[in-house]
Design goal:
Distance between the termini: 129 Å
Structural class: mainly alpha
Helix content: over 70%
Oligomer: single chain
Number of strands: 0
Number of helices: 4
Largest sheet: none
Shape: elongated
Length: about 180
């Protein structure tokens, strides 16, 4: 039989483990409320939460009382969770909500600062593009006019003759390809 002091320490340890489990539940409850999980997400989150909490409590029981599971362990776990919810639950939930709100605000600020810095970094490039776009568009227009003018001149000088030559070549092409000669 164990001395009374060891039994009290084991019971107190198990009470603390129950309080830790209560804290984990509050944390999950706040996370579920912050992310507004749907039905499937809630069921999946519940399953993951209970598996993780079971593993954590089992690990802590192994450390605290060598994994001995008796009736007093369940009583102490339930009592620890009850004490946690009665004494610390509301305060901890408010602090956790504040933490998530603070993280959300910090995230929004980080995004705004990053976008502002990105705009500052891109501003010189955008300015150069804006400054160069007007002269380049003017030069493009001039180039297009010059190309159309040269096409017109080329067609008038050589295009008609080239067209007639292509037509004659197409008519003689079958004879060249198959090496057939016209019969006289």
């Amino acid at each position: 039989m164990e001395p009374l002091l060891n039994q009290v320490c084991t019971f107190a340890t198990t009470l603390v483990i129950g309080m830790v489990a209560g804290f984990c539940y509050d944390y999950y409850r706040v996370v579920r409320g912050v992310f507004k999980l749907k039905k499937v997400g809630t069921h999946l989150g519940d399953a993951i939460f209970w598996l993780a909490t079971t593993a954590l409590v089992s690990f802590l029981l192994l450390l605290g009382n060598w994994g001995v599971v008796r009736l007093y362990v369940f009583i102490a776990l339930g009592l620890g969770a009850l004490i946690y919810f009665q004494l610390f639950g509301d305060i901890v939930r408010r602090l956790l909500r504040f933490k998530f709100h603070l993280f959300h605000e910090l995230w929004k600020l980080t995004v705004k600062v990053t976008l502002f810095l990105w705009r500052i970094i891109l501003f010189p490039g955008r300015l150069v593009i804006l400054i160069l776009s007007y002269p380049l568009n003017f030069l493009r227009g001039l180039f297009e006019k010059a190309v159309s003018w040269f096409k017109r001149i080329f067609y008038n000088l050589l295009g008609k003759r080239v067209e007639q030559g292509i037509i004659k070549l197409k008519s003689k092409l079958p004879y060249l390809v198959f090496l057939k000669r016209k019969k006289k």
